[in-house]
Amino acid sequence: MLVCIIQCSCLASPVRNQTDNTFHKTTILGHRFAPSDHAALPIARTRVTDLSHIDTYLSSIFTLAEQAMADRYDEREEELSSLLAIFPELNVKDTQTATLDLPISPSAPLLVRFVPQSSETPCNGHGDYAQAACNGVAHIEHDVKLSHLPSLSLQIELPEGYPSECPPTASLSTASDWLPDVRLRELAGEVAKLWEEYGRCQILYSYIDFLQQAAETGFDLDQSADGCLILPTDFEAALVDFDKSTKLALFNAGTYDCGICLEPKKGSACYQLDRCQHVFCKQCLQDFYNNAIKEGDVVAVCCLDPSCGKEQVGHKEKKRPLHPRELLAMDIEEPTVRRYVEMKRKKTLESDKNTVYCPRSWCQHPARSPNYPPIPKNLADYPDTDESDAESVPATKTAVVIDPSDRLAICENEKCQLAFCRTCYKSWHGPYARCHPRDPSELSEEEKASYDYIAEHTSPCPYCNSPTQKTMGCNHMECYQCHTHFCYLCGSWLDAHNPYQHFNKKGNPCYNRLWELEEGDNGQGGAFVGARRWEQMAIDVAREADDAEARRLQVEEGT
To answer: Is 253 within 8 Å of 267 (Cβ atoms)?
Structure first.
């Protein structure tokens, strides 16, 4: 009988004590029990002196072992252990509860519209745009596209009887409460539906996968009637900061090839430009931009990638200047960035024909203009430049047109703040007083000589009207202010890709005149054509008239 039991050891392997002739169970039905488990099997420690009852003994052993194994085996614990291997960040509290934070990074940036809060707008941001419009606040909304949003917190409850008898329960929430409660309840209800669809089995992994796929699509919030997520403006600062910090963390963790020195650098040592996404190391950017600002070449403070700005075929290439906050993010010193902003604003004011300057000789500051607001103390708050023009108005996307009838101008210099008339340049005399444009005779000799020299020795840029003087070389010119290519003789705009076609086209007034005035512009009025020629003719006529008037006066005085 003992031999038979040993041959059936796949089911039970009793071990005989050589001292007291007793059997102690060690492995039953393939499950090994520790000595501490013997309390659950009291018959296993019972002294067996009569081997004729060994069958009854083993039958009891089998029954108690099956009960013990059933008590020790829990499908909930098994599923949570499997999930923990897949999601190490899973927090398992016990065999019934677990929590998991799922990151939200939609494959396409989610459009979020921030609408000012009103007494009738729900505080949890679940209102729609139509309701906000009825409340009179939708006209000042702010649209932002976010690539990263605060995580979705999932809490799972596995009740008794799961998975065969009852489904699990899920509780969802988000940091900052940005996801509408209605959508959270819909997502939480999907766990019971999946449990039924999968035949009442373990479905936690499938449910987490469902939430991850929903997060990739932005929970289909862009498919709503509004086409975006509507939230109060109180949410904007926290969500935008989270998006920026997440992008920065991901960028710093990567490795990139600098577009200038071509060396691989860690993301923490690089900077990615906001608009074009080109990446350069901070050291190269600092060296180039510091030198450009020091030399006054503010137009060069733009993306350094040669291909940047060439996307629009058939249009004039235009690189957008960098915002001061980008320069500060590159660790360029604040005084250098302020100098860049001041020079850039000064150049823009000088290229604007509507700019008027204070008539006080000790001041000469420009007058206040809604198109050019003063530079703030915090350069990060400097208004963004218009996308279409590198030297356009920074305050608003559409320039404010000054009413010609509004003659009042106020000097922007805090130490002056003179109120004067922009027509006669005298102290402000009120809106009803009649005045006339400033008489050229009232100009000082220095001002008059400066104006005459500019008119006789420079050609204006056809794009920004900045005066340009040629000192030597050919007549293909590039404006230092806006980098427009133009002909110095006639002022025509030239194609940057083929500027010499203008001088090789027969019938053109500038045909074969590329190297005319090679020695520079010394006031040779006869060489010019087009607008420059007409301006020179007007100057000559006015000069001849002045000379004739002077001769007439001399004759009258002589008689």
So the answer is: yes
| Token pair for 201 | 């089995």
Name the residue with tokens 């040592």.
269
Fold that domain 78-244 belongs to in CATH: Ubiquitin Conjugating Enzyme (3.10.110)
The string of DSSP codes covering 443-467 is: S-HHHHHHHHHHHHH-EE-TTT--E
What stretch of H or E contains 172?
strand 169-174
> pLDDT digits over 321-342, tens only?
888 999 998 999 999 999 999 9
pLDDT in tens, 458-500: 888 888 777 888 888 898 988 877 788 999 888 888 988 888 9
The angle at the Cα of 270, spanning 264 to 272, to the nearest 5 degrees, equals 115
Q: What are the residue ranges spanned by the domains of the chain?
A: 2-72, 78-244, 254-348, 356-438, 449-547
Rg (CA), the chain: 41
> Is-contact 397 352, C-beta < 8 A?
no
| pTM exceeding the 0.70 threshold for the entire prediction | no
For residue 115, give Cα distances in angstroms to 140, 236, 288.
7, 10, 41
Q: Which residues contact 421 (CB under 8 A, 6 or more apart)?
A: 407, 408, 409, 427, 428, 429, 435
Lowest mean pLDDT among 9-13, 203-207, 301-305, 519-523: 9-13
Please state the CATH superfamily assignment of the domain spanning residues 254-348 in this structure.
Zinc/RING finger domain, C3HC4 (zinc finger) (3.30.40.10)
Under 8 Å between Cβ of 482 and 466: yes
